[in-house]
TrEMBL record:
Record's keyword annotation contains Nucleotide-binding: no
UniProt key word Iron-sulfur: no
Top-level lineage group: Eukaryota
Pfam name, any one: DUF34_NIF3
Identification of the protein by name: Nif3
Entries under SUPFAM superfamilies matching the protein: NIF3 (NGG1p interacting factor 3)-like
Signal sequence, renumbered to the chain: none
Classification via PANTHER family: NGG1 INTERACTING FACTOR 3, NIF3-LIKE PROTEIN 1
Binding site for a divalent metal cation: 77, 115, 257, 261
Family listed: Belongs to the GTP cyclohydrolase I type 2/NIF3 family.
Keywords noted in UniProt: Metal-binding
Any GO CC annotation of this UniProt entry: mitochondrion
Annotated GO MF terms: metal ion binding
């Protein structure tokens, strides 16, 4: 007598399918990244049709998902980044994965596929820089050009505009202080790291420097090195990369790595994923492909405990 095979819950599978439609894994930078379904946990009774979004899958986030009885975690940064030789309870990340598997909670990571996708993270951060936000209903586009720094080669259909990093050239220059205020408000942070060329006084220069072009890259901004722009906006840039930028007359604004990414979950991904899920599940139900007895109601929430490991004091 054969045993029934273990399988992921129908809802978790629907989330994976929806994420792959929104942010195809072929957009990810496979030279270093590890995107996709990282933990396929066998379905367990009692879990809700709910996906929990987070930037980092920490012990606290795992505790949160278990307490909430979520079916799947969508973690922007992959919790499994390199090949594993063992899975033990001593390693905190592996401990979380083992506990999640035991509870039936799967884990999916889109990472750089979200960076590259049109309307994804880099476009979201670029929108913040130019003042295009959901709260700004009177927004008037001041951008004469928005371009991709590194286009995706052979992108899938409907993703021809995908690529890493963005450059925006403003039709009318903006002061550095105006852009700093926009970025702080858009990211929901009180502090940013700002570097200006040494020909300007660090404190008073922000109202004196006018910016006509901006290079944007969420997370680590090394790809911005050498760009012919006035300002680099990113999550982090190394000490020497920052020195090289200001020596070449550029300004730098950095927000800490994950602070340049986290707001996207609440402001964009939550609603976009929920809409795609509702559409997909309704279509599956209509075609008779949704499992009998499984509720069609679903939810997408953002972690309350996920945060950047650094704080300014």
């Amino acid at each position: 007598m054969s045993r029934p095979s273990a399988r992921m819950s129908p809802f978790s599978q629907a989330v994976v399918t929806a994420m792959r439609k929104l942010y195809p894994e072929s957009l990810a930078d496979k030279s270093f990244d590890n995107t996709g379904l990282l933990l396929e946990a066998p379905s367990r009774p009692g879990l809700k049709n709910c996906a929990l979004l987070t930037i980092d899958l920490t012990t606290g986030v795992a505790d949160e998902a278990i307490a909430r009885k979520d079916s799947i975690i969508v973690t922007y940064h992959p919790i499994i980044f390199r090949a594993l030789k063992s899975i033990t309870l001593e390693n905190t990340q592996q401990n979380s994965l083992l506990r999640l598997a035991q509870e039936g909670i799967s884990v999916y990571s889109p990472h750089t596929a979200v960076d590259a996708a049109p309307g994804g993270l880099n476009d979201w951060l670029t929108d913040i820089v130019i003042g295009k936000t959901a709260e700004n209903q009177a927004f008037q586009d001041t951008v004469s050009e928005r371009s991709v720094i590194t286009p995706i080669q052979s992108p899938p259909e409907d993703f021809e505009a995908a690529g890493y990093g963005r450059i925006v050239r403003l039709s009318s220059p903006q002061t550095l202080q105006v852009l700093i205020n926009r970025i702080k408000n858009g990211l929901g942070v009180q502090n940013l790291s700002v570097a200006v060329p040494q020909t300007f006084h660090q404190v008073q220069a922000k109202d004196d420097i006018h910016i006509s072009s901006v290079g944007v890259c969420v997370g680590s901004g090394s790809m911005l090195n050498g760009l012919d722009v006035d300002l680099l906006v990113t999550g982090e840039l190394s000490h020497h990369e920052t020195l090289a930028a200001i020596e070449n007359g550029k300004c730098v604004v950095s927000a800490f790595h994950s602070n340049s990414e986290r707001g996207f979950l609440e402001q964009r991904m939550k609603s976009v994923l929920a809409k795609q899920l509702r559409s997909d599940i309704a279509e599956m139900e209509m075609e008779g492909n949704w499992e009998d007895g499984v509720p069609t109601e679903c939810a997408v929430d953002v972690s309350k405990v996920d945060r950047d490991p650094y704080e300014t004091v």
